[in-house]
Amino acid sequence: MDKAAIVGVAQTRYERRKKDQIFADMVFDVTRAALDDAGLTINDIDSVVTCSNDFYDGRTISGMAVGDAAGGMDKNISTVSGDGTFGAFYGLMRVLSGYKATIVVAHYKGSEGDVKITTNGMFDPIFHRFLGIEAISAAALQANAYMNLYGLTEEQFAEVSVKNHGNALNNPYAQLAMKITVADVMNSKKIADPLKLFDCCPISDGAAAIIIAGEEIAARSKKKPVWIKGVAHCCESYLLGDRDLAKPVALSEAARKAYAMAGIKNPLREIDVAEILEAFSYMEPLWLEGLGFCKPGEGATLIGKGVTGMGGRLPVNPSGGALSANPILVAGLARLIEATLQVRGEAGARQVDKVNTALAQGFNGPCGQSHCVWIIGGKK
Amino acid sequence: MSADNQKPERLEATFAFPMLYEWSIGLYGSRFFQEIMNNKRFIGIKCPGCGKIYVPPRRVCGPCFKELTELVPLSDTGVLTAFSVVNYPFIDPNTGSRRPIPYTYGYIQLDGADNIFSHIINETDLSRIKVGMKVRAVFKDRAEMKGNIEDIKYFELIR
Amino acid sequence: MGRKVAVVGTGQTYHRSHRPDVTSREMIREAVTSALADADLKIKDIDAVVIGNMDHFESINYVDTYSIEGSGAFMKPIMKVSTGGTTGATVAIAAYYHAASGLFDRVLAVGFEKNSESDTTGAIITCSDPIWDRFSYSGAIPSLATEATAYMEQYGATQEDAALVGERDRNHALNNPYAHLQRPLTVKDIMASPMLAYPIKLGDICPRSDGACAMILAADGIAQKTASRPAWFKAVSVRHTYTWFGDSTDYNKGLVSMQQASQEAYARAGIRSPVDELDVAELYLPYTWAGLKWIEDLGLCGRGEAARFVGDKNTHMGGKLPINPSGGVISTNCIGATAMLRVAEAAIQVMGKGGKRQVPEAKNALATGFGGCFWTDVVILSSERP
What we know:
The complex is a heterotrimer of chains A (380), B (159) and C (386).
Chain A: E1 4-11, H1 23-38, E2 47-51, H2 54-57, E3 76-80, H3 84-96, E4 101-109, H4 115-120, H5 135-150, H6 154-167, H7 182-187, E5 190-192, E6 195-196, E7 205-214, H8 215-218, E8 226-235, H9 249-262, H10 267-270, E9 273-275, H11 283-290, H12 299-304, H13 330-344, E10 357-364, E11 370-377
Parallel strand pairs in A: 2-3, 2-4, 9-10
Antiparallel strand pairs in A: 1-7, 1-8, 4-7, 5-6, 8-11, 10-11
Chain B: H1 27-39, E1 42-46, E2 53-54, E3 60-61, E4 66-67, E5 70-74, E6 77-86, E7 103-110, E8 117-121, E9 134-139, E10 152-157
Antiparallel strand pairs in B: 1-2, 1-5, 3-4, 6-7, 6-9, 7-8, 9-10
Chain C: E1 5-12, H1 24-39, E2 48-52, H2 55-58, H3 63-66, H4 68-71, E3 78-80, H5 87-100, E4 106-114, H6 120-125, H7 140-155, H8 159-172, H9 187-192, E5 195-197, E6 200-201, E7 210-219, H10 223-226, E8 231-239, H11 256-269, H12 274-277, E9 280-282, H13 290-297, H14 306-311, H15 328-331, H16 335-351, E10 364-371, E11 375-382
Parallel strand pairs in C: 2-3, 2-4, 9-10
Antiparallel strand pairs in C: 1-7, 1-8, 4-7, 5-6, 8-11, 10-11
Helix pairs in contact in C: 5-16
């Protein structure tokens, strides 16, 4: 790899309800901010990828709402219906195919639709949708299967919530920055056993933008380019009953490919910081296993030992992660942006010391059916 | 079990539940509807780059990629640039039931605006309506207005 | 620059108004299986999958993850792209970039729709802005009707001129075993059909169909080994220029997105005189007037000349530039697959696999997608490696 770099990033503050802004307003803000960050103008951009979802937006062809705001006029533009990490992947492919610079934007307003109804739409319309299953209850199933397989406890998951909400205190973009204890998590309202309120991401509004460019633009961008070392995505079976929910096989395969591209053999030693999409507390240890940072079943132990804390060997989600703000679709792009800021050394109070290589991850579909893994670094 | 897969009737599952949304209207959209409620007047927004005046008002000019801030008053009259008398039945996603037909969908160039505003024209007789005719907005009574597109009842032809 | 890429296989379902015998997933599988057979590949040979449709037509969120059993993307990368009517071409173009980028060697593209599963117009209406347009908007037909009215005003074209486009495409469909509507329709039939929204009559517009289309693309070096006559991508270009319906209606300018996208594509493909250098065109013409107005925007004839150009049978089979040998959108319209069918049919022509609908010695083919807010996708395929 090393042929394309992230040269500009921007995100909105994430909030429960951005009533004053329509989708286009949020996207216009982050598009201009990403251009400013890169020291580029819209004329330097020759390709645009927007990320949106018709269910969440309540609009067929949801990308239509933000074309102007993303600077898509008279440019080659397309819309990825999925997480921003996938949109960025398309942006990268366009740059590798010859475009000079692609801007990738994602927007989401959880405040405007009913996320239980819209995520119920992820499930099989014949066999499962009538059961009322949606993102949270499916996640609860996964958490339960995971606990059962390895004998994990709710308290172990609660530690993730404590860590990430605490990290969010250092992130001005986060929605839920809180100093809480394991007991607070354990005592929070039951949502879907074993998940309690503080095990779950909030409903969020927000947008993010990223500019991926080839070497020519990277050489003259204002900020230090952050090079794309490896990236891959992978999808497993659809029906939850066809999957072993305690084993994120698609994530493992995506990670294996991304590491191979980046030449990473020992991820725990070679990666300095990880931003991963843990919409629910249990996802962080489970994804750490999928990413090969530890053996299957040992994710919670890794967290318990403090390895993933700010002072640990592998800080995970210094931003506070998706538990602290989860604008769906934007959430994965936010992980990639946070990883970029870490590599640049621009993460402010949440900066991890000496970051050369960072990992970002996002996913689509219930219980992480389709994962995308990015490895980025400061040196070519 | 019979091995014959050809004979059974094919069943269908029905999904007929409403999906609820609460969309923001944004600053300039809100100003637009407030202006209609308060003064029965249209407003557009002017691009500082190309000078185009857009209605409904929005924050960005696509071709110039510039921020728009200058609201300008527009007339409640305009010219019909295209229309269609809709005759086919369909489910209105706004209500979940059939939209009454026939009705006339029109593209209106409001006097003072450079783009097109779309709304309903209260004329379904093809012999009485033509592209190029002048039209005027007819508003609901103030008490009935809700700050949405239906505060404009329709556009009527000025004969 | 990216790698050169070619289409090495295509597959499609036999399109019908209603496929109660299969779910969307099963219908997708039919097209995928057929594309793999056409390319003589197995699903294990596929490195990545791109899929698209319009969510609210089947009310399935995340069709990428839903489709796995049909699309064959189990433990593979799959990405969903969705851009309204242009979706099928958008998916094919995304698949092109997958291979051109160097990251994937063989890429499967899938477009599908089961229009029978919802109220098509009701679903289309949800593409209009919920604050401003949804109250008065009534689907694709009136916006096209307004365009047709303006075109007739400007150039004096008649309803009969447009109906000839419908007669042509519906006749061409008789050569295509996959086409949905296989009953010939004459200008007289179209003129006598019920008026839906002046001047569009039932015979002027596309049907709603159930169906799926799949294509397999391969990168340079692999494409030649996979297909004896691959259909090389010479150019792709996309213009989704408008966000607001009301910004897209300067009819005197024509269909701006189609002018821009086709001009960029011709330039990229080194085409100076499209009507002379192209051998066949598969165009997304959802209604008959598009077969007049839009071929002017594509530069296939001069402004206001389309009625005569089509009337002289230049675009019929055997003419100077046959348009829609497949029968086009007026004969088959499974929306998420419709624009991909244009690209696939163009590939079929270039690969010489058109059977009864084959244009003899077709070397260069043009395909378009249309949809969204008067948006255009353009693909140019060629038997010559660029």
